[in-house]
Each structure stands twice: as C-alpha cells, then as structure tokens.
C-alpha cells in the first residue's frame, strides 16, 4: 500500500502507519466507514511528512515498520501543538516499548490483532485517567515462531530463500507457513461487530 488518503467524510482526521498492506487497507476501510478522513503511510519518513501537513485528531501507529520505527512517528505526533489521540499497535508487545510509547505521547497501546472497535475505544483514553495495567501477553510457541519469521523476513529484505536458510527450514515449509498465516489473517474480521 502506498501513502494514500480517502475522501474526507467528517471532522475526525486519522493517520494509519502500518507496513502490512492488507491490514492497512482493512483498517482504512473500517475507519472510513466510521466517518474518519483516513490517510495512510507505510514508512516512518512518509508518516512524519503527513503529520506535518495535516492536523490529525487520531492516529494508529504500528511500532515495527520495515522502514523506520513507529516510535519516531509517535514522538513527532506528540510534539504537535494539538497532539492526536494515538493508539500504538504491535505484534511484538513488550512492557518497555509500551512505556516508551506512552512517554512519547501515545494514548494507548494494544497488541495485535486489535479490532476497529477496540482501537476506537482506546482513542478515548486521556491523560489523568486511570491507565489500565500493561501486561506482556502470554505468547504461545506458534506466535513466537511467527514473530521470528517476521523479524527474519524483514532482515533479509523479504527474501524467502534466505529467510528459510537462516531459520534452518526448507523453503517450501516457510512458504506453506506464510500462506497459512495469510489465509488466517484474511479471514479475520477486524470490525468484530455489525456496528458502523
């Protein structure tokens, strides 16, 4: 997904920073249907550029980007005269990154996958309100394996053969795992309810 903007449909202006094209498009569609003007970026530099051009009221920022870091985007958004309500999403949940994101201005921190409903509810958190305790999620073996695959893919520039070599698995096995994960995430309903 390239850096894009949907047609304005209300006073709420949302920045989505996510390098997974499928997830970015799904979130953009879900929030456009909820009345947000949606802008999306896949890289830190592009997101910071958009933050300088638009007065965002809301932001969804993935911490792990293929190019750059979501923390840089959170920092840039937090330094604006009117910082947006910023929800940080990550599949690599850790207490240290959660604390850092909150210090830099994030409103809330959610582990992936999070539904549009959960994200919108997290936008409502404000400084001074009781902050829910952030716990590192219990990550199963499959989730740990998936995180390792994702990290290695990013390190190799998404070269499947090199990733398989580094992970010590056959290329076809890795391809099957990627296809299975893609099929599972495409079937996931990020809306999770019938509400707009």
CATH superfamily of the largest domain: Response regulator
Structural class: alpha/beta
Supply the CATH architecture of the largest domain: 3-Layer(aba) Sandwich
Spatially, the strands of the biggest sheet line up as: 1-3-2-4-5-6
CATH class group of the largest domain: Alpha Beta
Query: What is the number of helical segments per DSSP (H or I, 4+ residues)?
Result: 8
Supply Rg: 17 Å
Ranges where pLDDT stays below 50 over 5 or more residues in a row are 4-10, 127-139, 192-196
Keywords: DNA-binding, Phosphoprotein, Transcription, Transcription regulation, Two-component regulatory system
Domain Response regulatory: 13-127
InterPro entries: CheY-like_superfamily, Homeodomain-like_sf, HTH_Fis, Sig_transdc_resp-reg_receiver, WalR-like
Protein name: Two-component system response regulator RegA
